[in-house]
Amino acid sequence: MNRKKGDKGFESPRPTTHQVVCINNINFQRKSVVGYVELTIFPTVANLNRIKLNSKQCRIYRVRVNDLEAAFIYNDPTLEVCHHESKQRNLNYFSNAYAAAVSAVDPDAGNGELCIKVPSELWKHVDELKVLKVHINFSLDQPKGGLHFVVPNMEGSMAERGAHVFSCGYQNSTRFWFPCVDSYSELCTWKLEYTVDAAMVAVSNGDLVETVYTHDMRKKTFHYMLTIPTAASNISLAIGPFEILVDPYMHEVTHFCLPQLLPLLKHTTSYLHEVFEFYEEILTCRYPYSCFKTVFIDEAYVEVAAYASMSIFSTNLLHSAMIIDETPLTRRCLAQALAQQFFGCFISRMSWSDEWVLKGISGYIYGLWMKKTFGVNEYRHWIKQELDQIVAYELKTGGVLLHPIFGGGKEKDNPASHLHFSIKHPHTLSWEYYTMFQCKAHLVMRLIENRISMEFMLQVFNKLLSLASTASSQKFQSHMWSQMLVSTSGFLKSISNVSGKDIQPLIKQWVDQSGVVKFYGSFAFNRKRNVLELEIKQDYTSPGTQKYVGPLKVTVQELDGSFNHTLQIEENSLKHDIPCHSKSRSLEMFADSPLLWIRIDPDMSVLRKVEFEQSDFMWQYQLRYERDVVAQEEAILALEKFPTPASRLALTDILEQEQCFYRVRMLACFCLAKIANSMVSTWTGPPAMKSLFTRMFCCKTCPNIVKTNNFMNFQSYFLQKTMPVAMALLRDVHNLCPKEVLMFILDLIKYNDNRKNKFSDNYYRAELIDALANSVTPAVSVNNEVRTLDNLNPDVRLILEEITRFLNMEKLLPSYRHTITVSCLKAIRVLQKNGHVPSDPALFKSYAEYGHFIDVRIAALEAVVDYTKGTFFKYFDTFTTLACSFIWVSLSLFSRLVTVLFLKGYPYQSGQILQFFFCEQTGDSRLVIILPQISCFHFQGNGEFPLLFA
Amino acid sequence: MRTALYGSKMADTASGGSGTRSGSKHATTPADNYYLARRRTLQVVVSSLLTEAGFESAEKAAVETLTEMLQSYISEIGRSAKSYCEHTARTQPTLSDIVVTLVEMGFNVETLPAYAKRSQRMVITAPPVTNQPVTPKALTAGQNKPHPSHIPGHFPEFPDPHTYIKTPTYREPVSDYQVLREKAASQRRDVERALTRFMAKTGETQSLFKDDVSTFPLIAARPFTVPYLTALLPSELEMQQMEETDSSEQDDQTDTENLPLHMSTDDSGPEKENASVLQQNTSLSGSRNGEENVIDNPYLRPVKKPKIRRKK
């Protein structure tokens, strides 16, 4: 890692200018691939007699350099991280060994798994720095990573079955499917050729130049050219019997989906052109590639994966016009993918420590799109959500460092020793850490925007893009191409050039240093002086925190209006006196103080957590009269601690206010339920929210019957979905769900009528089942009697009736994404856990099998995990079998499984899992990167790890 | 509910085919008398022709058959001649209509004058004059509407009002909305329960209670070969529903929607009226589409034939 960072070009011992990838045979039956690559290399140093390339799991047949046979060695140290006979079997040992193995093949350090000896005949040639052509024949059999085959088990040809294959992976994992320099910082131009069955389509990067039949006319070859210099890690491929849709608004954009899904594809992508227009407009820059392709495939690795001029999406993002809930989610995925086309694909990164700039910019412009599309309320809500997430993660696990600097490469200098894994390589990171890293990156970009203004920010992006696009048009490998790589220093320089502002303190605080700020605030009002005495304390000793010094905005809402104050947070000053403007005497009713509410850092311009104390009426004012949705949400959460009639009234008023942001109203529902439960002995009137729901959604003439569904107004749709779920959380003095509420929910289900609705009610019905599950309370058991039908609680019987009918109807008329099945499975588990139904995992196991829809499998698997609890290891075999078949389906699923397990804290089981990994080194780095995550859950703090195999 | 009272005129009043009722003894009505008299004349004609041909006697059945044939033949001439004359937009048949008819029926017209003037022909008496039967007047209901001023008088009159006036009928409305909803809900629930129970009985099931498999039978989970298809595609019921709701809303959409020239992509319609969150902006489609009429997209280009193999 001694590479010099900066705007100067950097030296690679084996810079590639052009690479040909040719895959001439793909066998779906055997899941194998045969092909060759040809790299054009310009040596930059004399005496280059060994060329190191990256290649994983490929079988290499033959290597020729300028048509001369060349000897080669293939060694992948990550295949066996720890030797089996090794005595040390703890996580730290493993973690270090794994980091060393990854380092040993790190392309950024000039390393690789494949070492080619340049034939001695060519040494002279190399000394003259003349071009080398390296030709490698390789094949791939049953790949475990990098390429994923989906081959449905049924009759018919591969095309009829909908069999397909696509590239995938975490970070730079192109080496899994062809030999290359698998780095984001080494760019070259590409020629890609794929010969596939005549009924299939091969989608890849760049322009499709031509498609030619083979001589027997049974296959065809797709020829792609990518003239924009691109990193190997941004190369991708998808082959399948895709249906093709040319975007009606932009003919250079083509969409692909699996057979039969074309109507959904049409609807889903009909919005994409608006995202294009938005980005092009704010960046004042055209989309850099001459074409764009979206491919929707099954068993996706991640929902969205962006590559040069194409994106691979999960097929489960497709939806019809009848689906409400999925629509914004899918559009967000499309917008994310497109943002990464500009920053991530077209502009790549200099090194791993510059990753935060790319993730930050793409996340930031995606945020701007969110603001424009969904409105400021949604945007602020999202920012608050992301902020809460990163704060919670850092406080729990330890800091997230955006720009790590590694001095000398010694492990001791690892700035993230608290994490039990190295943050030196993307492949040694935990998945969750990386997610949080991306979250923090875009939040920091927003902080920079706050400092230098959005206009300058966009100018900087435009500058980066226009430099890159000038560089990209250069014909041959030149130092110009490095303009297409972003580095932290280059980015900061660009900011200071454009804005003329010094943002170094900000960078130092949030980029070069990890941790968040934790504020505790309280205040007193001094009537005599008419001064607000604000005390702000910080906790900067706990892990994941840091000390904040600098300006902090405080907004004080007084009777006479809102006043902003900027306090200077310094080392030793805790108390801040803020003069008040209003005269308290003037209004008798507010005898105590003229202060209505106080907010610390209302603009979220610090990455912080604020715990602020103010009285209940102040929170109520804040909820009612502050227009910022973040303030409203904070007030709602605070009011949970004040179960009073006044809080009740404030929440009910918010619920009824149609102008109020719907998410705030939804949150108010749950708060109201909690308050009602705390006030149960003094509560008057019908159960909380019942009369409101009746007024809003039931017939005027017969209030017990809900109107026929009409979801045209999305705000009320979301409220209609949420209120029953919250109501079901109500409890009476016996801590049971009131009969009245249960009957009310059952009536909602009974009278639900969607015939006149143009939208599907599958999410609504699913939430009604969730509501039923929420109403369940523990069974009163006498002497641990066995649960049978005879002693079934009559209320539970009613609930079971509904669940049975819903679950069975799903087999006949399945709902979108099987939302109802998912809710039914969850509800059944709740009934089991509460002792109403015998606890038995058999049902869940059958739904967890391969062949069910992914959402159903996740729900079923979570139930199985929940079931296994303390007796986990007894079921270990079943479990690993289930998990194994999962690994390919989705990493997020697998890590969720691990999460569920480890949140419950089973040390012995974690050992079992580790043993599983030690034994089953599969070559897929995904398995390994989960390991540190396990440690985060269970071994954080002291770093102690029990000896395995005890 | 649109039940129009079209109708009773459909049943045609007795058509001219009543001549076949040859054997009827009880001629009572004037119409019957009329037809019988004609028939009798035809019989006489047939008999005289037979005599002319040299028969001395004939069985009744034979005479009847020949009569029947003759009557059919004459009727056909009449019907056909009428068609020809109406075809040329006349109401009265002319000689040429008859000639064409006969030619069409394969009759050699040129032999007719000679035959008419043959010597041995017999003359029979004209049939007795009977009154043409009066067609009974159709039932009139109400007053026919007079022509409006812009319609000339020679146009036919308006038909009876009952043939075109729409009178909506209402079933006794069920005033109680609650009862209706209740009925619909329980009906649906019964159907669903019966259906799922049937499915559960006829197939594999799973149960939540080991000791009882029949009270809450769950249809067994069966993995799919292609799980995403059932999960993503709308069910048939939803498709139907979508069509129904679409067609009802289409009217207010067609004028605002730009219909793209090449492809139908605008099934995004239903979201149109919705909150700005999901708003569609189709205004660009027109301009962008208008410029190029042929889409140049590499995936739409034809696959090339392989080049001829070079010598090796």
Characterization of the model:
Chain A: One of its GO terms (cellular component) is transcription factor TFIID complex. Chain A: One of its GO terms (biological process) is RNA polymerase II preinitiation complex assembly. Chain A: Residues 616-870 form the Transcription initiation factor TFIID subunit 2 TPR repeats domain. Chain A: One of its GO terms (molecular function) is transcription cis-regulatory region binding. The complex is a heterodimer of chains A (950) and B (312). With 950 residues, chain A is α+β, with helices and mostly antiparallel strands. In chain A, helix 25 (891-903) runs parallel beside helix 27. The two termini of chain A are 39 Å apart. Residues 1-10, 408-414, 870-877, 879-893, 902-912 and 914-950 of chain A have low confidence and may be disordered. Helices cover 40% and strands 1% of the residues of chain B. Chain B is built from eight helices and two strands; from the N terminus they run H-H-H-H-H-E-E-H-H-H. Chain B has a two-stranded antiparallel ribbon. The longest helix of chain B has 28 residues, at 60-87. The termini of chain B are far apart. Mean pLDDT of chain B is 73; it is low at 1-25 and 247-292. At the A-B interface, strand 13, strand 16, helix 4, helix 5 and helix 6 of A face helix 5, strand 2, helix 6, helix 7 and helix 8 of B.
